[in-house]
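Changelog-adjacent note: as of this version, every example in the card shows the full chain rather than a window. The one below runs 102 residues end to end.
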Amino acid sequence: MKALDDLLDIVGESEAHPLKGLLDIMADWIEGYDHEHRPMPVASGVDVLRSMMRERGLRPGDLSGIGTQAVVAEIVDGKRQLNLRQIRWLAEHFGVSVETFI
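Full-length structure tokens:
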């Protein structure tokens, strides 16, 4: 990573720099290693919602746009699925794409 960072400092944004090819190869190798040895866990839409609520200190009552406090609590507890209307509201509310909650 240190060598890649050093190359990034040298190459910068230049697509024509002579070291750009080496930079791309190193980045691909590091990405491949990370995918194999440190895969990202797959998070469900509800997992993302729980995380966003925790980060922002929100409670089910703070998300009345997706339903009553009881409905939101059931979603967060995994007892109910998010529907498309709720996903759209959450995406707009949190300023993210709808894919975040799918």
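Structural remarks: The two ends are 33 Å apart (CA to CA).
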